[in-house]
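Q: What changes when zinc ion is included in the input?
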Amino acid sequence: MKRNKAKEKKIVRERIEILFSEAAKIFSKNKKRSNRYVEIARKLAMKVNLSMPNIFRRQYCKYCYSYLRPGVNSTVRIRDSKIIIYCKECKKYNRMPLSKKSGKK
Ligand SMILES: [Zn+2]
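A: The predicted holo structure follows.
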């Protein structure tokens, strides 16, 4: 049985995109649901060995996996070309490099 990995990853990426946009939509009404979407997205990525794209990685806490919205349950700061996201849910700092031009969106 052949599996097309590249195609699988592409599909998963699209699904992750959808999950994060759903998480964003539902966040103000149902935070738990948003967190659940993050969880599903992470599991999907893991399943096909896809590293979570940076743009999505900034939207959840890598410690407690809560969906994060700046000004609501997180604060975002930029220092020394790093993004520092403080998660108010678990009170931890997520640090990540400021995107080194990963090119196309
Ligand atoms: Zn957290």
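Observations recorded in class: The mean pLDDT is 92.
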